[in-house]
Design a protein that fits this description.
Elements lengths: L6 H9 L8 E2 L7 H5 L10 H5 L3 E4 L12 E5 L3 E5 L4 E6 L7 E5 L4 H6 L2 H6 L8 H14 L2 E7 L1 H20 L1 H26 L4 E5 L3 E2 L2 E2 L3 H20 L5 E5 L7 H7 L3 E4 L8 H8 L4 E4 L3 H5 L3 H16 L4 E3 L11 H15 L2
Parallel strand pairs: 1-14, 2-7, 7-8, 8-11, 11-12, 12-13, 13-14
Antiparallel strand pairs: 3-4, 4-5, 5-6, 9-10
Helix pairs in contact: 7-8, 8-9, 9-10, 13-14
Length: about 350
């Protein structure tokens, strides 16, 4: 084993698929997990990357909606609230607990409604107020001071399309109105590139970028590889090429079963695939031999094993995935989604220790 690297140096080597001192450590947590862990000893007001010794800091800061600040409550109970959001989409959210919202209705259903409500103009018109420069600058400075890797994070165009039109309307549009989909995805790409350029001009470059979007469900992607390459790849690829031209590595996150889409992700220019949800059917042990010479991987540690809080099961899951992922470099330890509050604090800490034990070169 060579010299111990800083977190920033470690992630940089991993993204180049070089051999570091150990695998990287990163994680996502559901909103109610850290709250639950306070009763188990998690310190108040301490960011998880610092408490757990994680290597990365992720930072959002782009408000990628049609009408920022717009929010109209339609109905509210003790358990949930239904509201029309800043994309004029009606969603039902739980109150006081984490979870994905229920999709109720969408103003944008097709190309006609997309145009009639002025969406092309609002997304293509650059608005500096979309970018929270102060928050991004603070995170970047914090990462520098702590020698951690700072990844700017924002949603990709399929995810934004789901937020605006919903999966059903969007996927039907891909078949029946591909010209609308290209216009919508192109508008999103224009907006994202404009936000990136403005942020980079004002606060400088991050260490890398994490682009997130959910393109699959259990055992299937939402769309075929052919449809991805025809309708999604030209626009996500334009964003990624813009970032790569500035020397920025790109990590791409997607939940769901997305293995059939991986060749398209690689063609778009990503450096690493993140999450690889086990319960949806993804398996690092299939993906690494197929694509490990082209991209790195982050995740695929089954959170259901952690939820058992059985340390033997946790260690075996971590051991298998870390030993597979670390082979030849290019692996960051992460769950296959996010850590729920059903995972005990001591269980997660044990998983991290196992990751370091089996992930050291």
């Amino acid at each position: 084993m060579g010299a111990t690297l800083s977190s920033r140096e470690r992630i940089q080597k991993i993204l180049r698929r070089e051999i570091p001192d150990r695998v990287g450590l990163d994680e996502s947590f559901w909103g109610d997990t850290l709250k639950a862990w306070k009763a188990q000893g998690y310190p108040e007001a301490t960011p998880p990357h610092r408490f757990f010794g994680l290597d990365m800091i992720h930072g959002g800061g782009f408000n990628l909606v049609a009408f920022p600040g717009r929010h109209e409550v339609i109905e509210e109970t003790d358990e949930w609230v239904t509201a029309k959001d800043a994309n004029l989409a009606t969603m039902r959210h739980w109150k006081g607990r984490a979870g994905t919202p229920e999709h109720i209705d969408f103003t944008v259903r097709n190309g006609e409604t997309w145009r009639a409500h002025g969406f092309p103009e609002v997304f293509r018109t650059f608005k500096p107020e979309r970018i929270n420069l102060d928050a991004l600058a603070r995170l970047k400075q914090q990462a520098r001071e702590e020698e951690r890797f700072f990844a700017l994070a924002f949603a990709e165009i399929f995810e934004l399309g789901k937020n605006v039109a919903g999966h059903v309307n969007m996927c039907i549009g891909m078949i029946e109105e591909p010209e609308w989909i290209h216009d919508m995805f192109g508008a999103f790409a224009d907006m994202i590139i404009g936000c990136c350029d403005y942020a980079f001009e004002k606060i400088g470059l991050p260490d890398g970028v994490m682009i997130f979007g959910d393109m699959g469900f259990k055992a299937r992607p939402f769309i075929s590889l052919a449809m991805h390459n025809e309708l999604v790849l030209p626009h996500n690829g334009r964003i990624i090429r813009h970032l790569k031209a500035k020397g920025l590595p790109v990590i791409f996150h997607s939940c769901g079963f997305i293995e059939p889409l991986v060749p398209g992700f690689i063609e778009s220019g990503i450096d690493m695939l993140q999450a690889m949800e086990v319960k949806a059917g993804c398996d690092l042990r299939r993906l690494k031999p197929l694509y490990g010479d082209k991209i790195g991987f982050e995740g695929n540690v089954d959170v259901r094993a952690m939820e058992t809080n059985d340390l033997e099961k946790v260690e075996e899951e971590v051991r298998v995935k870390v030993l597979c992922g670390k082979e030849g470099g290019g692996y960051i330890f992460h769950s296959d989604h996010s850590i729920p509050h059903s995972v005990q604090l001591k269980t997660y800490q044990f998983a991290l220790e196992c990751a370091k034990k089996y992930g050291t070169y």
